[in-house]
Amino acid sequence: MDKNNSSIKYISRSPEETRDIGVRLGKLLKAGDVVGLFGDLGAGKTTLAKGIAKAFGIDERDIVSASFTFITEYDTSPPFVHVDLYRIENDTELAELGLWSHIRRDSVSVIEWAEKAEAELSSENIIRVSLKYKNEDIRELIIEGVYEKDWNHR
Ligand code: ADP
Ligand code: MG
Questions:
Q1: What does DSSP say about strands 108-112 and 71-74: parallel, antiparallel, or unpaired?
Q2: Which residues have any ligand 1 atom within 6 Å of their CB?
């Protein structure tokens, strides 16, 4: 995806709405794109990831929060890679994970808890989505690195 510096801001009022935003983002992604999801527990990262995955034909029930699995690769075209860094506690664990061997130019990658790999990701040309809990049902989403023109064209 072509990148630029504009940011798109959304207020989501339900999990369904967050999923729909994910589908919309997913439809814009192409091989090589890396999406970093930033935000605390319950901010809606997995919910958004389900929507992005849905755009690739993946059943949203297959996208789950990490227990022990950090990286799941789906055999779609292009391959879809879901990474959840929740349980990563330090840079040593991050290094052991070998994140970059899973994030490839021929796949689309979505990384939850991207702040845990901030140092590595900041040098990359990633699409950033920051999610913020406002109240029980409301989340603020800020999407950076997507052309507004592309976003609005659908
Ligand atoms: P994270 O992966 O960031 O920890 P999840 O997506 O797993 O967050 O969980 C978000 C929780 O918040 C879910 O239980 C979801 O139903 C709830 N929720 C309520 N309102 C929203 C909203 N507007 N967007 C996303 N999730 C919401
Ligand atoms: Mg999650």
A1: unpaired
A2: 12-15, 17-18, 39, 41-47, 65, 112, 137-139
